[in-house]
Amino acid sequence: MIQNDVLIVGGGPAGSACAWRLRQQGLNVLILDKADFPRQKPCAGWVTPALFRLLKISPKDYPLGLTHFNVFEISLKGIKFRLRTDQYAIRRLEFDNWLLVRSGAPLVNHRVDQIEQQGDRFIVDGQFETRYLVGAGGTHCPVRASFFPLDTADRQQGLIIAKEEEFPYPIQDPRCHLWFFEDGLPGYAWYVPKAGGFLNVGIGGAAARLKKRGESLDQHWQRLIHQLTEMGLVREHEFHPLGYSYYLRRRSPTARQGNLLLIGDSMGLATCDMGEGIGPAIQSGLLAADSIATGKPYSLKSIPRFSFPSLLRLRE
User: Fold this and answer.
1) What would the pLDDT profile of 164-203 be if each residue is shown by its tens digit?
2) In 3-state terms, what secondary structure has residue 267?
3) Angle, to 10 degrees, between the axis of helix 13-24 and the axis of helix 92-103?
4) Hey, what domains does the chain have and what are their CATH numbers?
5) Where does residue 254 rank: exposed (0-12), middle (13-18), buried (19+ CB within 10 A)?
6) pLDDT tens digits for 237-277?
7) What is the dihedral angle through the alpha carbons of 265, 142, 263, 153, rounded to the nearest 10 degrees?
8) Which of 31, 200, 262, 291 is most buried, taking the most CB atoms under 10 A from its CB?
9) Model pLDDT, residue 155
10) Where are the beta strands (DSSP E) in the chain?
11) Are 221 and 163 in contact (CB under 8 A)?
12) Separation between Cα atoms, residue 315 and residue 296, nearest integer Å
């Protein structure tokens, strides 16, 4: 039986950030993840200067591909305008692996099936024993599923389904384009050029509202592809998008039960306007680590529910 102070299920940004902070506090940490790293992860890859400050580095010190945007080209129900901003885009393939390696925590490639609580300890699949168990496994995190079950209303509320693809492409337009509520889509779509000649395009919408209308996300995906072609942004590319889902931030998500803690997308922390998840995930991982290490309460109050207020402040 492998024993640790803290076992983290999920090696993405939330889990890696949590492990990094815990190891700084001298705790013995192990990460479990079903995937081998580096691994592909569909994501527009938004990160902010504030996120780099949380990680104790500056953007210029980040050693891998980084694209900076000081303007967003926005279309809101067909009304076009520019929004000044200070945002970056990373490739998750690179960023997540960098965070994991930087944490210094060992990773075991393992799919979690069964979690038991025995007194003040948790046993995972009869192989791993820990005092603190942290769920960082995303939307389908086994820790959340075992100890923080969602009822039908919770599963429907705030569920976003998405399609996107990241691929090498001879980019002609280096600007970032965002479309909100185009053609009745209850969500938004994006075109994000990335470093190294890669392009990310995608679309996300509220699952419940699409179902109520009798629409599919694929219908809106086809409209996006047509629009990208008409605008000359992407031509003669055979798309193979990946589908996934995540939850927007609820007002009072359950984050902790005793020595069980949830972080990142395992409890749904993506911002309610732009679906930004990396920053909230990392912040929650750091907050959970501080709570474990110091005994102070684990609170999510400092994590913003919306992205746009911070974007608008950058214009002042």
Assistant:
1) 999 999 998 999 999 999 999 999 999 999 999 999 999 9
2) coil
3) 20
4) 2-66+87-156+247-313 (3.50.50.60), 159-245 (3.30.9.10)
5) middle
6) 999 999 999 999 887 788 999 999 999 999 899 988 888 89
7) 60
8) 262
9) 63
10) 2-9, 29-33, 46-47, 66-76, 79-90, 107-109, 115-118, 121-124, 128-135, 159-168, 176-180, 187-194, 198-206, 242-247, 256-257, 260-262
11) yes
12) 35
Q: What is the distance between the alpha carbons of residues 217 and 187, in angstroms, rounded to a whole number?
A: 10
Specify whether the backbone of 263 is left (phi greater than 0), alpha (psi in -120 to 50) or beta.
beta
What is d(CA 138, CA 33) in angstroms, rounded to the nearest whole number? 11
pLDDT at 316: 32
pTM, entire model? 0.94
The Cα 258–Cα 281 span in angstroms is: 20
CA distances from 220 to 132, 174, 216, 297, 305 (A): 43, 24, 7, 43, 26
pLDDT at 273: 83
Task: Give the three-class secondary structure for 42.
Answer: coil
Cis peptide before 38 (omega within 30 of 0): yes
pLDDT value at residue 309: 57
Other C-beta atoms closer than 10 Å to the C-beta of 125 total 14
Q: Which residues of the chain have pLDDT under 50?
A: 312-316
Nearest to 72 by CA among 59, 81, 60: 81
Q: What pLDDT score was predicted for residue 153?
A: 63
Task: Name every residue whose Cβ is closer than 8 Å to that of residue 211 and which is 6 or more positions away in sequence.
Answer: none
Where helices occur in the chain by DSSP H, the ranges are 13-24, 49-54, 92-103, 142-147, 152-156, 207-213, 217-230, 278-294, 308-313
- Measured between its terminal Cα atoms, the distance across the chain in Å is 56
Instruction: Evaluate whether 254 touches 154 at the Cβ level (below 8 Å).
Output: no
